[in-house]
Amino acid sequence: AKYSVQQLVEKVGFFGILACASIPNPLFDLAGITCGHFLIPFWTFFGATLIGKAIIKMHIQKIFVILAFNNQLLETVISLLVQIPVVGQKLEQPVRTILAKQKEKLRGGGADNEGSIISSIFEKFVLAMVAYFVISIINSLAQSYVKRIEKEKKEKHSD
After folding, report:
1. What is the pLDDT along the chain (159 residues), one digit of tens a residue?
2. DSSP string, the chain
3. Cα dihedral sign, 144-150-156-159
4. Please, what sign has the CA dihedral across residues 21, 27, 30, 34?
5. How much is the pLDDT for 139?
6. At what angle do helices 14-22 and 28-37 cross, to 10 degrees?
7. Which of 48, 106, 119, 158 could form a disulfide with 17 if both were Cys (CB 3.0 to 4.6 A apart)?
8. Exposed/middle/buried for 57, CB within 10 Å: 0-12, 13-18, 19+?
9. Cα dihedral sign, 4-10-15-19
């Protein structure tokens, strides 16, 4: 997978990045790293990412949600599921229960404590990682500033 993403970004450029950003997949991080490694211009990367994520991927996800929560379509899929030999009848009730819980959760009515505790812990973890990232950027900028000042001082003393 890594090699194919590398080839896609290297050979196709903008449209390769656009493809990686448009498809809901975890390989986009790899595509971003590959773009940085091969020094893809920022605006090429940013433009493809913006179009891919904000326009194409958003519409794909919107269509999926609309289709997934269309009652008529869901009933058709469940009726097809029931026709599967041996396991079809056994899967019908669990699938209906999962879909009902998910609909209730999305409508804001069913927040279970376990999910909210896990999501709260995850939120704090992500916040800590972002804070660490910001602090490391500030530290790196400060170090490069000090090096530049020291270099300028050495150049003045050597003159």
Report:
1. 567 767 777 777 788 778 777 877 776 777 777 788 778 888 888 888 889 888 888 888 888 777 777 888 888 888 888 888 888 888 888 888 888 887 787 777 555 555 678 888 888 988 999 899 899 999 999 999 999 999 999 888 876
2. -HHHHHHHHHHHTHHHHHHHHHS--TTHHHHHHHHHHTT--HHHHHHHHHIIIIIIIHHHHHHHHHHHT-HHHHHHHHHHHHTSTTTHHHHHHHHHHHHHHHHHHHTT----HHHHHHHHHHHHHHHHHHHHHHHHHHHHHHHHHHHHHHHHHHHHHH-
3. negative
4. negative
5. 93
6. 160
7. 48
8. middle
9. positive
| Token duo for residue 38 | 């091969």
* Tokens read off for 54: 């904000």
